Amino acid sequence: MKKVELLAPAGNLETLKFALNYGADAVYLGGKLFGARAYAVNFEEDELKEAVEYAHLRDKKIYVTVNTIVFNKEIDLLLKYIDYLYVLNVDAIIVQDFGLVKLLKDLYLELDIHASTQMTLSNLETIKAAKEMGIKRVVMPRELTLKEVEKIKAETGIEVEAFIHGALCVSYSGQCLFSSIIGGRSGNRGRCAGPCRLKYDLLDDKMNTIASNMHLLSMADLCTIDYIKDMIESGIDSFKIEGRMKEKEYVASVVASYRKAIDAYLSGEKINTDMYKEMMSGIFSRGFSNGYLYERKPHYMSYINPKNKGVPLGKVISIDGPKIKVSLLNSLSVGDGISTETGEYGYKVDVIIVDGKKVDEAYKGQLAELKKIPVNCGDILYKTYDAKLNKLFSTSNELKSPVDVFVNMKENRPLYIMIKNNDICVSKDSKIVSTKALKKAVDRDTLTEKVSSINDTPFFVRSIEVDMDEGLFMPLSVIKETRREAVEDLTIKKLDYRRPKNIHINLHKLINDKISDLKLSFYTENEEHVKIAYELGVDRVYFNYRLNGDVLKDVICYMDKCEIVPAFPQIMRDELDDFKHVLKNIKEMGFKKVLATNIGMYNMAIKLGLDVCVDFNLNVSNSLAVDFFGKANTITLSPELNIYQIEDISLRSNVKFEAIAYGRLPLLTMEYCPIKNFKGCDKKGCEEGKYLLKDRKGNLMKIVSDGFCRIRLLNSSVLNMVDKIFDLKKAGLSYIRINDTVESNEEIRDVIKAYKNSLELGIYDLHIENYTRGHFYRGVL
Description:
The chain has 781 residues and is α/β, with parallel strands linked by helices. Helices cover 29% and strands 26% of the residues.
């Protein structure tokens, strides 16, 4: 059975050391720039250097996250940062932005690329495409089942990394605009504000309440320690723990637990995983689930408390003035933290009374008298901080790398020390030769002890062989100096720093005379709306035909005056296994273009000679990403760009660019379905947008299925730029897109007419009460 990698998170240097000392094989971390956890402490450049040294000298690996989208003005800074990581010889760069993939493949072939889960590589063809473009490892979307992961590994052979423990995002990573649209803090820039952890109401279209005042989008934490056998046998190469914003005690406890579970399985030992789950829950837990390993629609969520709920402490049996009595289900110590089930009330325990006496600790089964907290009799209290457990994981033993040493001491020759560490071998001769001792000779034990004294280094002596003549003398200081120099040579060889490349690149010059004949495009999943767009003279229609070939045939008749472009769902898994077959059929029907929502579709369409339009969900946000998709006919730019960033990109390329100028933008796309969990499956109602989430401000967000029981949450405000056509034209765009989601026939007719009139005549008649300008005039952090 092959060895699997246990990959731990680290938000700072101390946590990194704990992760490795407790058994991680590798650590992923972020610098101060371009990482998807901008609110973690993260690493300064000197700390990055120390982190890489600590890991590499102990035979461990460091992967650095550069997994955000990048803007043009940041590319010089990005290059300097990548060059620094190259010098440090980090083991891989974790990447989201396709522009960065191009940069690395063009300029830094020596660096391994790992595709972040932010890339949303959710099907076999996209991962084949990733391998073709030189990506070594893919971080699997958390939503994929174990069966899907196993198939991908078997059919591609690419290195596969999968999350095994920690927080779960409710949205597909890389496809979430929730924090960005609501508050300008982009998850794609590492600044997610976590709106999915807030309270919402679930309503139907008649405003009847189905569920109220609950954390309806808050996922329980992933815990797979019970399924280590299945995960190893699926072929997963790297087991990833989430938590770059967590404390060292959390990382240490989780690493220790999974290290034990992995090693036990590989050695045939059986362990009690319940004990480890209890321990990990005692540090941090929102409640544990197996995520999507065996089911597509998770049912266990953290609806009541989106924060750490810890472990059940006990049941409140009486309330007496300022005190409560609790029947303990777990032990409780002074210094522990307790809270109500909702997490709204809690405190650090400073007094425990049992049988009328103050105690430092109370045990399971005892009645403990505690300071009052807002509860009712019968409520369950939770222990959210375990002082003893945190103390247990607050220290660690430093990890060291084993060396084998050979020493040769012969008369009239220099002392020779050879040190072997894994495949690296170094040797050193002393600066003077050994001579016959006139007084006290160096004996074997003394020589062995002096050469082995490397406790202040990252190494320990596993074995030492000494070949020496008796009765020889050499100053002990020379022996120690020779040993020290040999260890220094080993250190230098292991770190293997590179020389900087100091590369500078110039983006394409601005095309000042670029002529932009701004046209109108229209995206819909509604066949009737295709007809309306055709009748009203829309230039291009993207029709997401939901993989129904018969429906696609029905719109061929509109191609005489309107460019019809078959479009595909934003997320595709095994609904479409054979891209080649589907695209061939599209081409044979007479279609010339397709709208690609993933790199697998893009690659295959190009190979088959179809023109490709790149959709917004591929997050094209800079000119390097434009070059990556250099064979595209049209690129719909990221909705997180402002008008000035759009202009800076579009005026540097002759590619046709598009921006969404109308519609309810999808805040997130998820497999989880609140309707199924609270009401039961209603496929038709879901597809028609008959359900809504209401936030604390009263905003109503439509819940709409993509036709494959995949849920999109739509913004409550409609993006509306009908009166800003001049700004869009000035930005160098070729198309502005109307994005149709839940609009009626009449509404769509009014919208298309208004945008057509604004484009052609400069006048419009469109009244939308609740609208937004999106990021056109503000951008994102």
